[in-house]
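Data card: per-record layout.
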Amino acid sequence: QRILSGAQFWLLVPAVLLPAFWATALFLYQISIAEQLGWTSGLLATAFVAFAGTRIVSSLGVGPLIDRWSARALFPFYLLPFGAGLAVAWFHPGSWSAFLYMGLLGVTMGMGSNIKSALWAELYGEEVIGSVRSLFSALMVFSTALSPFMIGWLLDTDVTMTAILTGAIGSILLATLLAFAAFKKE
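The structure for this 186-residue chain is written out next.
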């Protein structure tokens, strides 16, 4: 009840949901992405190694950063690698960019679960952590179910991948600004 009534919750929701939303759609439509961005599907599939590696390293590396500065301080920044990865894909100057794109997505995905778990404890207290996590998990499932439909529809209506990436970058930037706004008064 108190969780949903605060403005801070609503300012944080986009930053929490967008990485999973975009990653689900981008991974599902990776063949379309590869074709439209001038990559081979094999190259993009191989670039998943960069995603996995950076996800593991960032997941392990963010814990000490949370301990030092807090999840509140780090949360607004965690989307920036994702946005940078999307920008790399949009500009796609060569084969190497597929690895950088996937690696940067992995950084955000790896940091995200640890930062978000710590953030819920910092904001709402440990006594309601289960309720907060289950609420966000339900919202996440909804967003990841919605993304393939939305992106598939856009692709079916001949919206280009660069236009979709532009929208994704814009949404990530907006979510980042909202996350900064959520902690501005503190």
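Known properties of this structure: The mean pLDDT is 93. The two ends are 21 Å apart (CA to CA).

See the next section for split statistics.
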